[in-house]
Design goal:
It comes from Strongylus vulgaris. GO terms for molecular function: guanyl-nucleotide exchange factor activity. The strands form 3 sheets. Strands 1-2 form a two-stranded antiparallel ribbon. A two-stranded antiparallel sheet has the order 3-4. Strands 5-6 form a two-stranded antiparallel ribbon. The protein is an alpha+beta fold. It has 6 helices and 6 strands; from the N terminus they run ββββββαααααα. Helix 2 runs parallel beside helix 5. Among the domains are: 35-115, no CATH class; 126-215.
Length: 246
């Protein structure tokens, strides 16, 4: 696997449009330090002598891949730094004017790119991400990132029903698992359990009435039927494991 890739060279164009499509395999365990680094080079087509470098860097830019528990996707407009980047720059946003460095066009965003992600790990839906981030924060022991409060968690659970259909279907089982876990082992008051139960009811309604193409011959949601089927299998396996350990 390569760690860098080069685009096509644009000849004598001050505003080049590079149409290269680059596919990357990103790590599963992303953190705030993961980023994409873009280096811009000047290519000398007619060097004056043999010792002259054919290419040399003229600017840098970067894009953090993971921010606030979310994968960075969409269209981005980045500034270009003319000096070598300092250490730990990847933890900062390129919108931050780094000290003691020069920027092209006074730090204006001059480099545009688009990122599309195909992932089974990151929902790429703000409502689902807010819910997953909130639930995962309950196990946090970091004082700087305390667990989410009850009202915020209730709001996140209720907001799940606003998710787009595609990611909702893809992550339905994960959502149901976490909602049931919050009911069975609620970290706060009964208000949270009630909100989670109501959300499950809304999800059942969505799967049954709105996603009618997924219904079986008895009018039951195939998604929910499969979930219940495999949930029972998982529970049987867990009980056997518990009995053996006991």
């Amino acid at each position: 696997m390569v760690s860098q890739i080069r685009t096509a060279v644009v000849y004598h164009n001050k505003t080049p449009h590079i149409a290269d499509e680059i596919k990357l395999r990103i790590p599963i365990d992303l953190d705030d330090g993961h980023h994409l680094l873009f280096s811009f080079y000047h290519i000398s087509c007619k060097p004056n002598n043999k010792d002259e470098e054919v290419e040399y860097p003229i600017g840098y830019s970067w894009l953090p891949l993971f921010r606030d528990g979310r994968l960075s996707t969409g269209d981005f407009h980045l500034p270009i730094c003319l000096d070598r980047l300092p250490s730990s720059y990847g933890y900062l946003s390129p919108d931050v004017a780094l000290p003691n460095v020069r920027w092209l066009d006074a730090h204006k965003p001059t480099f545009n790119l688009a990122i599309t992600a195909i992932s089974t790990v990151h929902p790429q839906d703000e409502h689902l991400e807010r819910f997953f981030i909130g639930v995962n924060s309950l196990s946090s022991t970091d004082r700087k990132k305390p667990p989410i409060g009850e009202s915020a968690l209730i709001s996140a659970a209720q907001g799940v029903t606003k998710a787009r259909p595609e990611p909702m279907v893809a992550y339905l089982y994960n959502v149901l698992d976490k909602l049931i876990a919050l009911i069975a082992n609620r970290p706060y008051t009964e208000a949270l359990s009630s909100a989670c139960f109501e959300t499950i009811g809304q999800l059942v309604k969505i799967c049954t009435m709105l996603l009618d193409s997924c219904l079986d011959m008895h009018g039951r949601s195939a998604l929910l039927s499969s979930y219940i089927h495999y949930f029972k299998i998982a529970m049987k396996g867990w009980r056997k494991l518990f009995s053996c350990n006991y």
